[in-house]
């Protein structure tokens, strides 16, 4: 399993490129912090790695990865469904019985401090709760590559710490994790840092 960026560049029509000549390899078991000022292209690079956007130049090679989960900067859920349903769904899709899926979903929710809201509807969750729920759901899908955009932006330091340890747990399972972040605590919890503020400028 490997992701390899070779001399990747990206810009939007007529504007200066966000980054250029970016070459980097990503390996299982590593957590990569993608840092840089607002507007430096962190979310854009995540989209390129996910294969949703073509870079303007360079190549992206992805070997041996079929399961990709993504946690967006803005959480998207199904308003009337419970928080627990959101996390149980990928487990049901993997063939687990409902009782097992819900038990595993509750354990994952506990790892991001969400036990108390498991029965609440998605639309009743706070921004930070919804963001952590999306992370628990992404982890439930057992991804080989997990792309996370600003997971702790809306969180207090203690809740942020629970998110960082949930990321650690999935990385220990051999996933590649790439996290766009402004948060020094999340950056420090990663094994590698890729700073877009210092590339191609
Ligand atoms: N589809 C698009 N068309 C034109 N410009 C775009 C498009 N998508 C993003 N941009 C611009 O590219 C720049 C980088 O955006 P991006 O969302 O990747 O930044 P970011 O580093 O994730 O910022 P933040 O920290 O605020 O989330 C921004 O200036 C944005 O306005
Ligand atoms: Mg962004």
Protein described:
It is a single chain. This protein has 201 residues and is an alpha/beta fold. The protein has two domains: 1-67 and 144-150 and 174-201, P-loop containing nucleotide triphosphate hydrolases (Rossmann fold), CATH 3.40.50; 73-142, no CATH class. It has six helices and eight strands, in the order βββαββαααβαβαβ. The chain has helices at 42-50, 83-93, 98-111, 127-140, 157-172, 184-188, and strands spanning 2-10, 19-26, 31-35, 57-63, 68-71, 145-149, 176-180, 192-195. Strands 5-6-7-3-8 form a five-stranded parallel beta sheet, with helices on both faces. A three-stranded antiparallel beta sheet has the order 2-1-4, covered by helices on one side. Helix 2 (83-93) crosses helix 3 (98-111) and helix 3 (98-111) packs across helix 4. Bound molecules: adenosine-5'-triphosphate and magnesium ion. Magnesium ion (MG) binds next to helix 1.
């Amino acid at each position: 399993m490997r992701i390899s960026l070779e001399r990747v560049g990206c810009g939007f029509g007529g504007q200066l490129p966000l980054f250029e000549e970016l070459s980097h390899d990503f390996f299982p078991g590593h957590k990569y912090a993608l840092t840089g000022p607002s507007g430096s292209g962190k979310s854009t690079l995540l989209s390129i790695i996910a294969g949703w956007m073509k870079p303007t130049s360079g190549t992206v090679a992805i070997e041996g990865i079929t399961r990709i989960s993504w946690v967006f900067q803005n959480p998207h859920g199904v308003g009337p469904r419970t928080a627990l349903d959101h996390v149980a769904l990928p487990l049901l899709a993997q063939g687990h019985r409902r009782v097992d899926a819900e038990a595993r979903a509750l354990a994952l929710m506990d790892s991001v401090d969400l036990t108390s809201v498991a029965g609440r509807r998605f639309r009743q969750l706070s921004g930070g709760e919804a963001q952590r729920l999306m992370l628990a759901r992404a982890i439930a899908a057992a991804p080989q590559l997990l792309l996370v955009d600003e997971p702790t932006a809306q969180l207090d330091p203690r809740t942020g710490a629970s998110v960082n340890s949930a990321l650690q747990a999935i990385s220990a399972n051999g996933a590649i994790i790439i996290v766009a972040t402004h948060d020094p605590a999340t950056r420090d919890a990663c094994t590698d840092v890729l700073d877009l503020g210092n590339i191609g400028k």
